[in-house]
Design goal:
single chain; 461 residues; alpha/beta; Cathepsin D, subunit A, domain 1; six-stranded mixed beta sheet; two-stranded parallel sheet; 10 strands; elongated; Peptidase_aspartic_dom_sf; DUF7083
Length: 461
């Protein structure tokens, strides 16, 4: 049986092969049952980390979340490599925010970035979207709430002060910060924006100690004042080179008068001839009627002309009125008694103004301007004309805080060279919606103040 040894050898080889396969299968099963050390650490740390969900309305930002678990990654997970830390970190980011992060780094993949790079990108994407100036301003303005105890208040103060980054702030920078924080008037809005931009630029590019030769000077109070004057001069120069015509604004509004050349169609035919024109334009005023032998109408309109003529009876006039083209002029003494005056506040100073609903603009004299502190004035962009047609001398204009009945708003005030010209015009009346308020409740009669160039009511309805 020569074939028996060969058969035995074949059986032995097959048995050895089966045993080897069984050992490999057992090793694979053991590997699946017992994960590697890195996976064990990741699974263990993941249970100790709360999932991050970005919510700026509730003050939940990534930098605060990571600060809470930073030691978990750097100390407890110090045996993990960068890729394992990145996997653990992104595993604890909410699904919605994980998708936003992945979309922000396309076409790259999260595994293409190291752990520190991933932290930087997440802080930028889910961090506070406010500037350092905003954090510092909030710190300076923070105050204790009535519901907070002193421990909570102290903790909030500590948090605001840390966000302030006091160590990075020099003495000159703090003075500049305080200077800008005090520019709260709406008229300083453009200057305030420019200065905040300069503060942010210096913070983003800090200068070494001592400053390098040829470097830009540090931001100081003196630099800020120079910048303010530069911006103001720039605005004034811009106004000078503007090629726009000045707006002619009448200080007192006038009712438009139709010219003699205007031709309008009357609502009814002429009673002298029956054509559609006014009686004053009728060509039959000198015509001799062949029927009634009377002058002034066309044949067939005898009765109509007689009826109209009988109605035109001259009314007696008072000796206090003078007739001039259908307008009655009232004595000046009567007009002065009808004028209304109102007390308002201009930049905190009480001023008496004449209330003039026919004036387009609000004006004060140079003496009142001096009384309220001589605020900086700009070149006037209007030509004011009085009711009599005379030019009103406008020195300039400025923005002021106007207070009427405990309500304060900002408005434009024009300064005149006239010593007694103080008028509240339509612009201020509309700003405070005084049309709906009875003027008698706002005004007080004052007969001492009067000026000839003010518009007078020269017609009686």
């Amino acid at each position: 049986m020569s074939s028996d040894p060969e058969l035995k050898n074949a059986i032995l080889k097959l048995t050895s092969l089966i045993a080897t396969q069984q050992e490999q299968i057992a090793a694979l099963q053991q590997a699946n049952a017992n994960p590697s050390g890195s996976e064990k650490i990741i699974e263990s740390l993941a249970t100790a980390i709360e999932e991050f969900r970005y919510d700026p309305d509730d003050g939940i930002f990534f930098d605060a979340w990571f600060a809470r678990y930073e030691d978990v990654f750097k100390e407890d997970g110090k045996h993990l490599d960068d890729k394992a830390k990145v996997r653990l970190l992104l595993r604890k980011i909410g699904t919605q925010f994980h998708e936003r992060y992945v979309n922000s780094i396309l076409p790259k993949h999260p595994r293409d970035f190291k752990f520190d790079e991933t932290i930087t990108k997440l802080k930028k994407l889910f961090g506070r979207q406010t500037s350092l100036f905003h954090a510092r301003y909030q710190c300076l303005q923070y105050a204790k709430n009535e519901a907070d105890d002193f421990s909570s208040y102290a903790a909030s103060v500590n948090r605001h002060c840390e966000a302030f980054q006091l160590k990075k702030l020099s003495s000159d920078q703090f003075k500049a910060l305080r200077f800008v924080c005090g520019l709260q008037s709406p008229r300083d809005a453009e200057i305030r924006t420019r200065l905040i931009s300069k503060l942010e630029a210096e913070e983003a590019n800090p200068q070494p100690e001592p400053p390098a030769e040829g470097a830009a000077p540090r931001l100081t109070l003196e630099n800020l004042v120079e910048e303010c004057h530069r911006i103001i001069n720039l605005k004034q120069d811009t106004q000078l080179v503007e090629k726009t015509e000045k707006i002619n604004i009448h200080a007192v509004a006038k009712q438009p008068r139709p010219t003699a050349t205007e031709k309008k169609v009357p609502s009814s035919p002429c009673w002298l001839c029956g054509d559609m024109h006014y009686v004053r334009d009728c060509s039959y005023k000198d015509h001799m009627c062949s029927r009634c032998k009377r002058q002034g109408h066309k044949e067939g309109y005898c009765s109509m002309a007689e009826q109209k003529s009988s109605k035109q009876v001259e009314q007696p006039r008072s000796k206090d009125f003078v007739t001039s083209k259908g307008i009655r002029l009232v004595k000046q003494t009567d007009l002065k008694q009808k004028r209304k005056y109102i007390r308002i506040g201009l930049n905190g100073t009480t001023v008496q103004m004449q209330l003039d609903s026919a004036s387009d603009i609000t004006m004060i004299s140079k003496y009142v301007w001096a009384q309220i502190g001589q605020p900086h004035i700009h070149a006037a962009d209007v030509n004011a004309v009085g009711a009599a047609g005379g030019r009103i001398n406008i020195i300039g204009k400025f923005n002021a805080n106007i207070t009427v009945q405990n309500v304060t708003k900002e408005g434009c005030i024009y300064v005149t060279g006239d010593p007694d010209f103080n008028v509240m015009g339509i612009d201020t009346i509309e700003a405070f919606d005084l049309w709906s308020v009875p003027f008698n409740s706002l005004c007080a009669m004052n007969l001492d103040q009067h000026h000839e160039s003010l518009g007078r009511c020269n017609s009686v309805q």
